[in-house]
Amino acid sequence: MERDGSGYRDNVQVTAFGYGPEFCNLFAPWEPYSTSVRIRYVTCYNGAVQVDHPAMITYMAR
Question: Mean pLDDT throughout 26-43?
Answer without folding.
Answer: 86
